[in-house]
Every structure is written in structure tokens, then in C-alpha cells.
């Protein structure tokens, strides 16, 4: 994880552009999601959409400790997969599935990162509730992203909203600062205590990630070395926005029509 950086106005403006590019790619994927499409075809949509905005995919060949280089531009996490599912031509979407799509791009030297979990056709009321609560937890967390607050204020919102609904949050993975590097400090866990942790300052940019399991919190890594799934096979949802901490409050840099419901 790279060091914490504070962005000036000019850098924030650039990150508005990279956020917009990342949101564009996710929006294009949203339009392609339907029963029968494969996750490899969604990767192809990401490839074309990323090129269309002259951006560079952030995930392709990305390395994190103890994993092989990541082989795609998006992560596709279906049903009990939490994060980091790899696109595959044999994996098709079916009515009733939920499919998390995570994508980040680099534009003008800065990264933008976002994720959304989509229902495929009609889904069960339980699945829809998981999506609604996880998305609500992300927005409650974003509301805390203002100068003077602390990382714990964001983290505790993620935890409280999910756990109040009877769900559990992921312990082993976290959101992150973002800028010239995809992963900068501070680390943003999905659980925590209000008024604790790193203090938020004007000019920080945060990739806030809400990762919620319908069942237990325990997860395991599959044999491909990347895919993280729930141990109890319960459904899992993931939403992420890139957010600038500004003097007049949080500004979401990855907003797009997919979020308006
Ligand atoms: N949005 C996730 C993260 O920031 C996805 C990382 S996938 C990887 O951790 F391929 F880039 F590792
Ligand atoms: Co991220």
C-alpha cells in the first residue's frame, strides 16, 4: 500500500476526469448485463469502453501480495463470490443471479475505482434486500467522508448498516486511498469504531468499498489464487465509489445513472 497523499485543486480536477472514465466503463457494462451473457463478454465490453475514453485499465496485470498478476480489466463476483472473480467464457449469467462488477481505470496519471452489484432479471426478495442494504451502507459511509472526521466514522457506518439488517461485513479486505496509485493509505475497513483512526483532511481521495455477506463473515480464496467466496455459500454484495474529501463535504467522483434508483 502506497503512502497517503493530499491532492490539490488541480489534482482533484484530474481525478474528476478519471472517476468519470471509470464510471463510464461500469455504465457500459451495466447496459450489457442480461441472462445468457458470459463474464468474458463483460470483460470485452470493459476493454472497448476503456479504450473509448483513452484510459488505461488499472487491474490488468496488477499485483497484490501473495497473488499471481491479475489477468483482466474487471472483477466479476457472482452470487457467493465476494470479490476478485476472474472473467471466464464458461461463466454465464442466469436470471436470479447477482453479479458484482468492479473496474478501475487510469487517466491523466490518476486512478478512478468503482464497483456495483447488479440483479440479473428478477432476483429473490432476499437478494434484492442484500443489494439495497449494501448500497445504503456505502452511502451512509460516504456521508462521513468530511474533513475532521476519522476513518472509524466511515468504517462504523459500513458495519452498523449491514449488521443492523442481520448481515455481516468482510474482515480481510478493505477500501483504500487512491490517486497516482490504485492503493494508497489510509486503509478503510468495513468495520470500526467512530472517532478512531486516521483523521480525514481536505484533498484526500478515498475508494470506499462496502462488502457485505448475507450469511457469516468468513471467506476463502479459491484455487485460481484470486476469487474470494463466502465459506457458507451465502450471497455477497459489493459496491464502491471513489470519493473526494472536500472542505464543503464529500464529492462522489464515480457517479453515473446506474446509481440512481
Ligand atoms: N477494487 C478492488 C481493490 O481496490 C479490486 C482490486 S482487483 C486487482 O482492491 F486486480 F486490482 F487487484
Ligand atoms: Co478498490
Write a structural description:
It contains 4 helices and 13 strands. It is α+β, with helices and mostly antiparallel strands. The strands form 3 sheets. Strands 6, 7, 8, 9, 12 and 13 form a 6-stranded antiparallel β-sheet that branches. Strands 1, 2, 4 and 5 form a 4-stranded antiparallel β-sheet that branches. The chain has a 3-stranded antiparallel β-sheet with strand order 3-11-10, with no helix packed on it. The chain has a single domain (9-259), classed as Creatine Amidinohydrolase. The protein has helices at residues 9-32, 39-52, 125-142, 151-164, and strands at residues 56-57, 74-78, 81-83, 98-107, 110-119, 168-169, 175-177, 184-188, 205-213, 219-221, 228-230, 236-246, 249-252. The structure holds 2-amino-4-trifluoromethylsulfanyl-butyric acid and cobalt (II) ion. The site of 2-amino-4-trifluoromethylsulfanyl-butyric acid has 11 residues, from loops.
Amino acid at each position: 500500500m502506497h503512502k497517503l497523499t493530499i491532492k490539490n485543486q488541480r489534482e482533484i480536477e484530474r481525478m474528476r476526469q478519471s472517476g468519470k472514465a471509470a464510471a463510464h466503463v461500469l455504465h457500459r457494462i451495466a447496459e450489457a448485463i442480461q441472462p445468457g451473457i458470459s463474464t468474458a463478454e463483460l470483460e470485452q465490453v470493459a476493454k472497448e469502453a476503456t479504450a473509448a475514453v483513452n484510459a488505461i485499465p488499472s487491474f490488468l496485470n496488477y499485483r497484490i501480495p501473495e497473488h499471481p498478476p491479475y489477468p483482466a480489466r474487471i472483477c466479476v463476483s457472482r452470487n457467493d463470490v465476494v470479490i476478485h472473480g476472474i472473467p471466464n467464457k464458461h461463466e454465464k449469467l442466469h436470471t436470479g443471479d447477482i453479479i458484482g462488477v468492479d473496474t478501475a481505470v487510469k487517466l491523466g496519471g490518476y486512478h478512478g475505482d468503482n464497483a456495483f452489484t447488479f440483479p440479473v432479471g428478477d432476483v429473490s426478495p432476499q437478494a434484492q434486500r442484500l443489494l439495497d442494504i449494501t448500497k445504503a451502507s456505502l452511502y451512509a459511509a460516504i456521508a462521513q467522508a468530511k474533513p475532521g472526521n476519522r476513518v472509524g466514522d466511515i468504517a462504523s457506518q459500513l458495519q452498523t448498516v449491514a449488521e443492523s439488517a442481520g448481515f455481516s461485513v468482510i474482515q480481510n479486505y478493505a477500501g483504500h486511498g487512491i490517486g497516482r496509485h490504485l492503493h494508497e493509505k489510509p486503509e478503510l475497513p468495513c468495520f470500526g469504531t467512530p472517532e478512531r483512526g486516521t483523521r480525514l483532511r481536505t484533498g484526500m481521495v478515498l475508494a470506499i468499498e462496502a462488502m457485505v455477506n448475507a450469511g457469516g463473515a468468513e471467506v476463502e480464496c479459491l484455487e485460481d489464487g484470486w476469487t474470494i467466496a463466502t465459506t457458507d455459500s451465502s450471497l455477497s454484495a459489493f459496491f464502491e465509489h471513489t470519493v473526494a474529501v472536500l472542505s464543503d463535504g464529500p464529492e462522489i467522483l464515480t457517479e453515473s445513472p446506474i446509481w440512481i434508483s
